[in-house]
Amino acid sequence: MSKRTTSITIILLAATILFIAALHYLTPVNSIVLHQVYQRIYYIPIILAAFWYGLRGGLAAATFAALSYLPHILLHWQHQNYEYALNQYAELSLFFVIGAVTGWLGDQKRREHDRAERINLELQKAYSDLRQTVGQLLQSERLSSLAEIASGVVHEVRNPLSAIKGAVEILEKDIPLESPRREFAQIAKAEVERINKLVTEFLKFARPPVLSKSPICVNDLLDSTIQLLELQAAKADVKMIREFAPDLPEVDIDAEQIKQVLLNLGINAIEAMPTGGTITFRSRSEGQTIAIDVGDTGSGIPPEILDRIFDPFLTTKEKGSGLGLSVAQRIVAQHEGTLIAERRPSGTRFTITLG
Ligand SMILES: Nc1ncnc2c1ncn2[C@@H]1O[C@H](COP(=O)(O)OP(=O)(O)O)[C@@H](O)[C@H]1O
Ligand SMILES: [Mg+2]
Which of 65, 97, 123 is the last residue of a domain? Predict the structure, then answer.
């Protein structure tokens, strides 16, 4: 009940009690049947108060009812009909008994209800944790079988690729310099290079490297990532902003791997802002952990893919591999950290927590 409804209900209950008391005082003393009826009506506000406000409510209503009725007994019955007065006193005690018992039952019911609600919440949480764990298990199961297939396939693909590249280079030599067919050789070499890059990225994804950790200042790592991204950002008219917390404690991480994560996030951010914008790199400490935000003012993640964004091979880009975020998430998970994506009013924010 809101505060407002509580006060209104209490006022209504008190008014009912006063109304019943008024009936007693206004009805002639010899209409005993009417008085008896009024007395019974007192139980309605008492039971309601007890039901709504528990033991205290029940006792308060009983006290108020007794106080409002007591003068009537003292004034009228005490002298005229002592036996009836005694009866009335007993009735007043019953007010308290009924108020207390109903209130106690109400309290009991409320406690049960609260307990059931708590258990329900705990169950809901356990269920969502379980779903998350099962999801992670399935994902790692998928990944480990993928890793085996991948490394085999990658080696099989790489060998013929270097053979093709060599053959194209030899063929190219026989083509006169001014011939337009030279362009085909260039295309062939560029495409071979692209497949090679994709396959290498895939291998990186399928067989994560063993971490080599050391204490690192996250701000320095962010600085060197920003430097690496500078050229690509400038081309896309993207401004990079540093919002670093001073005096961050060092964290034990594999700097190269986390830099890879930051690069993947940075490149995605630049790609999400083809007509320019800003990327904010923010570092902050949260108790024992360190958080890094990479926020952009770009197109935003389409809502329909938000919950699949870390899935391998999910891409909305014509030449995307869909591996950047899954590699990033894998590396962060290897560090026992978390990586989450959020849609913001203008753009996207990824948050890494480490430590
Ligand atoms: N900063 C971002 N803003 C908007 N969409 C994003 C962002 N980062 C990632 N995405 C979406 O997530 C998809 C997967 O990203 P990723 O795994 O890096 O693969 P890729 O970049 O090769 O597509 C992207 O294709 C894009 O749709
Ligand atoms: Mg990417």
Answer: 123
pLDDT tens digits for range 116-140: 999 999 999 999 888 888 877 777 6
Q: How far is the CA of 267 from the centre of ligand 2 (A)?
A: 6
Nearest Cα residue to 329 out of 269, 264, 284: 264
Is the Cβ–Cβ distance between 61 and 99 less than 8 Å?
A: yes
CA of 134 to the centre of ligand 2 (A): 26
Q: Which two tokens stand for residue 188?
A: 């062939």
Give CA angle at 202 (225, 169), nearest 5°: 95
pTM: 0.56
205 contacts 327 by C-beta, under 8 angstroms: yes
- Positive or negative, the CA dihedral 14, 15, 16, 21 is positive
Which residue is it, tokens 């802002």?
273
Q: Are 221 and 343 contained in the same domain?
A: yes
How many domains does the chain fold into? Answer: 3
Tell me if 131 is assigned to some domain.
no
Residues 96 and 149 in one domain: no
Max CA separation in the chain (angstroms): 135
Q: Would you tell me the crossing angle of helices 82-174 and 43-72 to the nearest 10 degrees?
A: 150
Comparing CA positions, the residue from 242, 231, 293, 292 lying closest to residue 267 is 231
With beta carbons less than 8 A apart as the criterion, state whether 265 and 229 touch: no
Nearest CA to ligand 1 atom 10: 301
- Give me the phi and psi of 353, to 5 degrees please: -115, 140
Do 27 and 35 form a contact (C-beta atoms < 8 A)? yes
Per-residue tokens: 264: 């993947």
Q: Give the structural domain span for 303.
A: 214-354
Cα end-to-end distance, the chain, whole Å = 44
Q: Are 49 and 95 members of one domain?
A: yes
pLDDT > 70? residue 18: yes
CATH number of residue 313's parent domain: 3.30.565.10
Please tell me the number of the ligand nearest to residue 277's CA.
Answer: 1
